[in-house]
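User: structure tokens for Phasin, please.
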Amino acid sequence: MIEPKLEVPAELRDLAEKTIDQAEKAFGMFFDAATKSMSSVPGPGTEVSKQALVFTEQNMKSAFEHARKLVHATDLQEAMRIQSDFLRSQFTSAGDHMRQMTGSLMQSGKGKS
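Assistant: Done. Predicted tokens:
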């Protein structure tokens, strides 16, 4: 069976891409402000909080990249492949982040004993 092409006007794709760019810039400003804020108020959980913020920023960048790829999908099969690849990478990334966070928490716990 032949998959129908996604007939999305170029103007709509351009608008979607510009919207993604604007949202990414806004999140970038948020992460910059949050990083500066965390650095100015040191505390016992600051390093873990910084690490969590870095992981969140990485996840958002992946989401924006994913959205850009979806905007350019030409058929449903390609869109499903893009979605599947994204979910697979997010699960892998989440596992890596959990291991790193657990390691950091264990290290900070050892330093207190």
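User: Anything notable?

Assistant: The mean pLDDT is 87.
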